[in-house]
Amino acid sequence: MTAIAAEPDGTNINLGSGATDLSLLQRTVLQADFDLGIAFDGDGDRVLAVDANGASVDGDQILAILADHLDVDIVAVTQMTNFGFHRFAEERGIRLLTTEVGDRYVLEALRREGGLLGGEQSGHIIYLKDHVTGDGLAAAMLLCAALEGRTLAEAAAVLPRYPQAKENVRVATKDLSDDLFAEVARVNEELDGSGRILVRASGTEPVVRVLAEAENPWKAQELCARISALVARELG
Questions:
Q1: Bigger pLDDT: 207 or 60?
Q2: Among candidate residues 87, 85, 94, the one with its CA nearest the CA of residue 64
Q3: What percent of the chain shows pLDDT beyond 70?
Q4: φ/ψ (deg, to 5) at 124
Q5: Which residues, including other chains, have CB under 8 Å from residue 50's CB and lie 6 or more apart?
Q6: What whole-number distance in Å separates Cα of residue 189 and Cα of residue 219?
Q7: Phi/psi of residue 189, each to 5°?
Q8: Cα–Cα 20 to 30 A to 22, which of 16, 61, 120, 162?
Q9: Rounded distance, CA 183 to CA 177, Å?
């Protein structure tokens, strides 16, 4: 085992490393022929991974691996969780609790419904057996235990992710109109489970975030561009 980016000086937290930037970890795994790499963020509550081929493994994939291994029947996720996770959960009879973006909302949903496992695509993983909040190190240990002799790439293949396209549209107002919501609803109904559109106003920036998912990347890009143009016309 080798530790990298493990010498903090008070100013280099998350600087070109960790869960906010996997490039250093990817290079290290490939150059030293490791089986996998684990990345934490500065305060240690987020965890992402890299497989032996240098491919990133995000929070959705980690959550799916853990859901299978821990045999849970409830999982809490956020609106940003990949649509493929919904298909994954449906196939396994797992009840999904979908919350607003933020691990605090995931935690609230788990406590309210009596669930144990939840998380975000960004790497917040919460497992409430013997824990009260998210813990990156505990999640990393759970992930390693869940491999059960498989490579990380083999384990991550349990989740067929939908291609995503995202755009942050700068706007003059973040008040989403009824017409905009109606068009998003119409497109989602048209997709009929083969993808989705999500539009939400940022809580911190003058932007509206558009997320499109579909079974192929070209469709996702086309949907994202279409709705982003509509947002720009309505609110720009």
A1: 60
A2: 85
A3: 100
A4: -70, 115
A5: 22, 25, 26, 29, 36, 37, 38, 39, 56, 57
A6: 15
A7: -65, -40
A8: 162
A9: 10
User: Which sign, positive or negative, has the C-alpha torsion 15, 23, 165, 92?
Assistant: negative
Rounded mean pLDDT, 35-54: 94
Q: Using the predicted structure, report yes or no on whether residue 175 has a pLDDT greater than 90.
A: no
- Measured CA to CA, the distance from residue 36 to residue 39 in angstroms comes to 10
Residue 173 reports pLDDT greater than 90: no
pLDDT at 178: 86
The amino acid present at 180, given as its one-letter code, is L
Cα distance between residue 190 and residue 211, in whole Å: 16
Report the distance separating Cα 135 and Cα 150, nearest Å.
Answer: 24
CA 45 to each of CA 6, 73, 122, 163: distance values in angstroms, whole numbers, following the listed order? 16, 24, 11, 26
Place 11 in a pLDDT band, splitting at 50, 70 and 90.
confident
The DSSP bridge pattern shows strands 207-214 and 164-170 to be antiparallel
C-beta separation of 118 from 20 below 8 A:
no
Amino acid sitting at position 200: R
pLDDT of residue 17: 87
Does 236 score more than 80 pLDDT?
no
